[in-house]
Specification:
Length: 91
């Protein structure tokens, strides 16, 4: 199942989890290595992983390096029965 990104904390979780398995032999890629490949500063990677705001272009460069793309589609809006799960933030 593909992740459903609803906010910057979902993006943070996605980037961090993929970085931890994107290194050699499935090991952890350092934030500096990801930053170098994406052409951003190491602090920018940490900002993304904390759920802080970064530009769309920056987020896209980091996602591309991790082999991820964004797919946009109309949302399936929550109803009263599933609103809590829909807006739940990933840890």
């Amino acid at each position: 199942m593909q992740p459903n990104l609803k906010n910057s904390l979902d993006l943070a979780h996605l980037v961090k989890s993929h970085r931890q398995t994107a290194g050699p032999s499935g090991g952890k890629m350092t934030a500096q290595a990801l930053a170098d490949l994406a052409g951003v500063g190491r602090d920018t990677i940490f900002r993304i992983e904390r759920g802080e705001d970064v530009s769309f272009d920056t987020a896209m460069r980091v996602l591309r390096i991790l082999g991820l793309v964004l797919h946009a589609e109309p949302p399936q809006w929550p109803n009263l029965h599933n609103a809590h799960d829909y807006f739940k933030v990933q840890p």
